[in-house]
Fold this sequence. Notes:
Layout: E1 3-5, E2 11-13, H1 21-24, H2 54-59, E3 64-72, E4 79-83, E5 85-90, E6 97-98, E7 111-116, E8 121-126, E9 134-135, E10 138-139, E11 144-146, E12 151-154, E13 157-163
Parallel strand pairs: 5-6
Antiparallel strand pairs: 1-2, 3-4, 3-13, 5-7, 7-8, 8-11, 9-10, 9-12, 12-13
Amino acid sequence: MQMQKCPNGHFYDAALHPQCPYCSGMSTNVDIGITMPVRPQENPGREDGVTVAVIKKKLGIDPVVGWLVCVEGPQKGQDYRLHGDNNYIGRDPGMDVCIQGDDTISRERHALVTYDFETKTFYLTPKDGRSNPRVNGKPVMTTVELQAYDKIQLGQTVLLFLPLCSERFEWQ
């Protein structure tokens, strides 16, 4: 068996298939089926559901608290909504902020933007990215507080930070 990984992350036997059968939709002699998430066995004492942000629990909505706007890079002009609590940034569509087209940004958890409702403060934290994020040209090695109009660089992408929530406005 000669396992190969395609650019989209699928594994397949290269000895049987000249290209990824998942991506190409090739008919194969092997039923590749649908990939399903692995879930832990049912636990009667545990709720099975998505973790809810504190603000969503309080207000019944998950409101926008700010934005990131791409001002340089492949997605120039694109805006990304930020919600309360944690917003993970990466290329993967499962990320809260999905920045496609810049392969210098990690697929998952390159960085994290957090909005804290108690202090009405935004933070940027480097996570699992291969390169360090930068704020206004300076490398970020630990969590830093964000200010309106800060420029966040991730890979070859530069994002302008625009808060909605602050001392002047908050969701009630």
